[in-house]
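Predict the assembly for these two chains.
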Amino acid sequence: MIPKELKYSSEHEWIRVEGNIGTVGITSYAQEQLGDIVFVELPETGKEVNKMEAVAVVESVKAASDIYTPVSGRITEVNEELNDSPSLINEDPYGKGWIFRIELRDPRELDELLSAEEYEKLTKEE
Amino acid sequence: MKRTPLYERHLNLGGKMIEFSGWEMPVQYEGIISEHLEVRNGVGVFDISHMGEIEITGKRAKDAILKITPVHANKLTPCRASYSFLLNENGGIVDDLIIYSLHEERFLLVVNAGNIEKDFNWIKELITNEAEVMNRSEEISAISIQGPKSGRIFEKLFGFALSELKYYSFREGLETKSGASTILVSRTGYTGEIGFEVYTDNNHILRIWDEVIELGAKPCGLGARDSLRMEAGMPLYGHELNEETTPIEASLEKFIDLGRDFIGRNGLITRKPEKRLIGVKLLEKGVPRPGQKVFCEGEEIGYITSGGYSPSLREYIGMAYIKPNIKERNLEVEIRGKRKKATVVNLPFYKRRRV
């Protein structure tokens, strides 16, 4: 259910790091809590952002939720496919439903994030 | 929080429960959009047991109804249902409701779940000398079956065609094939589709719900109920309707008989409408939500009352109150500080294909 190779934030974002680039999305647990997603407001590419800053918004049928970046850095790419198919986040949260890519400013920030086990524990407590 | 007799059924069907007007109700089972589309293309069933039922009886019950609501008197004929309101002295809406005319001396008012106590006290105060007022909300439950395939279910339940029941009419005391008794079966609806409602006492509702599910109706939650009523351009108390708003401002004047006296008439006649209800469709991507500001040529002219994604039209839509004199159809809705282009559209957004 919760991919082992990813890092997680307490705000239900995941990050997959390859080299100096992190790909970020929201967890399956988060998409389930939100319900049907109908719109995603993507961040601007090139923007410098700080860890835990609200950078995107995911709107479900019932409500809008901020998406926080789990690390600091520069937004390098956004998932344009979400413009026409926001439901990709519901269908494939860890794959086609990714939201943005970010060039890490300080890789040490990754150590402050949760492992899959820690994140699973967090969702059980909620 | 209050629970309806169907609470356990909702849990067993995977219902996601939320608080709504003091009740624990399913917002969805599988998903709001799939439930919405089921009602548009197939048949869905909603638990509406949280709604209130207030019975008014006595020799002068009809006069009492005519005093507290602006309904057209000729509509209060037995076996007919009428959409109406309770109004305050200023013409503001205390609640919107459906009047079931059982006979000349007996009426059942179906009111919003969040307003049961308020309405009951309001009515009692006004007509305590004319008629007996009873709050039967605790003992009556109801379900609503909606969608183009609801006729099949109706026929299997009651053994005659749904088309024999006219829109906004009802039958009393029907029994289902399995022998469950009903208080009344009506055709009103809140989705823009063909459908019917079954009112019965708490201990028969489970059996009827099970029968309906067995006959192929998909359980639907409050989320789909909300998006369906919005597409159908139907108002919701607390969003489009409240005590500061008149039925005229809400574009519901056709339900008012200004030719006779009723509580709130003077207010309606003397008050100048301050706003007008419109439908808006976004021309850019974004989701309208209640409370967002509406602009026209740079000037703030109103606010969104209901909004969201329309699964049937695949558009982002909303209802809004704007200043009554605005004729311009190109507007903007401010969403998180950004003004998005929108246009005025005629309500309803969605109209059922007439076969």
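Helices of chain B lie at 7-12, 32-41, 61-68, 116-127, 150-158, 202-214, 222-231, 265-270. The radius of gyration of chain B is 20 Å.
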